[in-house]
Every structure is written in structure tokens, then in C-alpha cells.
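TEACHING EXERCISE
Course module: macromolecular assemblies
Task: Read the component lines below, then compare them to the predicted structure of the full complex.
Student: A.B.
Group: 4
Components provided:
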Amino acid sequence: MTFVYRLLVLVILALVIRCMFRERDFWKQATAALVVVPLVLRLLMIK
Amino acid sequence: MMRQPAASWKTAILLLLLSLFVAFVAARDFRVMNAPDVFAPAEGFARKMLSEYFPPLKGTTADTPVFIREGKEPGGTVLILGGTHPVESAGILAATLFLENASVPRGRLIVIPNANAMALTHNSPQEGHPQRIHFALKDGSTRVFRYGSRATNFTDEWPFPEIYVHPASGQKLSGKERSNLNRCYPGVPDGSMTERLAFAIVELIRKEKVDLAFDLHEASPEYPVVNAIVAHERSMELAAIVTMELEGLGIPIRLEPSPKNLRGLSHREWGDSTDVLPILMETGNPSQGRLRGRTDERLVLTGEDKAYVKAAALGRLFIPYEGNQLIAYRVARHVTAIRVFVENLEMVRPGKGVTLEGIPQYEEILKQGVEAFLKPVPKKREV
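Instructor-supplied answer key:
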């Protein structure tokens, strides 16, 4: 179960990073950068 | 037609690096909470692990130290559990005072200072809760105790169900209550981590044939069950004696019967599943309340809060509040109540009395503070 959960988190993280690289507006890129932080912590099961 | 600006890869890379740096700093801060609190047990305490009573717990984050002191003279067995909810520091500290000061000429004393170790590895930053509380000792050293969360760490207790159905009764609660140790008794051997932990504690009570067991808590001053003893019907006679004695000592305390239809709690399930006399005790802690203002270590240690002064003036609180609820006062209440319970155990369980010595008196804790009865420990980490 946890494996599936982490896999989902990884996919979402990858999509957010992809968005960040394709986005043209700086503030939308910054918003994506904010979202990356909790996803990384969750992926590593730290928080 | 206007041309869209190209996506800035350089900006994205810089932002990604910044995100990873922030995640690294945050991760380091969160992971410090995994370092266990250090205790200095009084001479004669043997250290075991809870997994010795329920082996599947071994190697998991739920496993926690169990300290046992055996008296020379046979008698009964008393269990003191602190840290069911690690956000309720007076429970952990009262258990620690017994662990670090008690000698046991008769009977046995078992202390579990960090009952839910999985709830100590995180806190509630959005509640403004501190990660730790500190006590300066006379020798210049500092004792540090983690200030955890009420609930098991999400990383140990995932996924939450929408509704938590208590396995023994079918009682329905909010899904997150499955991460609350004091809703999971008598536990399930192959259940969630918190249910397994509850099962292990009940196994300990059974295998060690515990006569009298305490689950130490704190509650917000506006909650009706505060400054209270909650007793299973089997414990009620003893609890009534203790309540009268405490009132005589100038310690006002309520006596509440354990509701038969409120399942999963220690005062109900320990009594229904084993032969123990279960007791749950609550002190008043403003740092847990919803009326509180600025929340920090100072509030946890002093209980000083202007909003509670106003609430007390309006008659909205269930404790007498005169501007503070010092940690020394909250711990002294727990310690004194346990002492009086143990002194009277022989009356209700002939031949099963327990004698405890070296326990600080109520006035001593109030005057000298909790720190006067904590022992120095080796410095393990900078916090």
C-alpha cells in the first residue's frame, strides 16, 4: 500500500516539476516550486 | 499575434534547487524528532522493550522502552504510562519522576514514559507547538523532552480510513482517531500500527499481572473532564478513597466513572480485557486549549495565557485558573495522586500492596520545580 502511495506521490512530483519547466510565468513557476517541497518530504516519508 | 515568452529553464532550475534546499532544511528539522528522549532510571530498574510482550512490534517505530523495578518483598504490580498523547507533557514528566526517583521495597513498579513513541516523532507546527521543552538542572545541564503530537505519525499510520470502526465494539469514530492510542484499546494483533501498540500494552498488563495501572493525560481547561480521575467500575472504590484523600490534601479533583459505551479508551478496555484496576488522570493544560493565544514553550511550561484569565472570569473553565497552570503544579498533581493510590492499594487488593519510596512530595515539586527531581543525562545531541 505504501509503495503505491509513494509511486503516486512520485508521479505527481514529476508532473509538477514538468509544469515548472514548461511554464512561462515566473509566479506560476514559483508556485510549483512551493508545491515541490511537501511532495519531496512526503516521497521520503519524512513528513 | 503576440508571441508567448519562452519558458525559462534557468529560472526553473534555480527554483527547483531552492525547493530542494528548503526540503532538506525542513527534513533535517523534522528528523531530529526521531532521536529518542534520554532517561536516567533510578538504581534497580531493568530496561526491557515493549516488543518483548508482543514480538511483532520488534524493529518497528512503535517499540518503546519499558522500565521495571522489582522490590525485595513480594506484593502487587503498578504500571505508570506517560506519553499516550505526547502533547500532554505532565504525563511524561510524572512518569519520568517515578522512573528517576523511585525505590521499591515491596512489589513491582513498571514505567513506560513514552507510550506512543510514534506520536513523539512529529509535532503540530500549524498549532504553533514547540518541538521540545527544556529544563535547566542544578548542575548546569539541560534536560530536553520532545513535545510530540496527540496522534501517531502519519508516516506510521497511513492511510486513515474515512470512519474508524473500533474492532472490539463496532463503535464509529472519525478516521483519524485510529491514530489515537487512547481510542484503539484493547488493540488488534494484526491491525494498524496504533492498534498493534495498544494490543502490546494490554499484553504487558496481562503477562505482568498488573494490579493497578495509570494512564496519564492532560486536557484543555474548557474541557469538562479535567483535574479528574476517570475510573473503571472495578477501580471506583479505590478511586473514591483517593479522591477524598486528595481533597484533604488541598488538591481538588473530580471523580468520573468510565462510560461503558465509550470504547477504546484505557480506563474502559484495560478493565474489561484484564484484571487490572485502570485509572486515567487529567490535569489542566492551557497549551492544549482552543482559547489560547501565543503558543510556545513558555505556554507549555507556565500555562500563562490572558485569554484563559478572561475565560475564567466568565466562568467558562472547569479548573480554578488564576493566571497560570505551571508544569510543576500539573506534574505534582499526577505524582501525588499516584502516590496516594499506591498507598491505598492494599485496602482493595489484600496482599498486593506496593511500597514506593523516594517520590517527591506535592509541596516539594511546587517549591523546587520539576527540574529539581530530574537527573542529569549524557548529552546526546544539540537541540
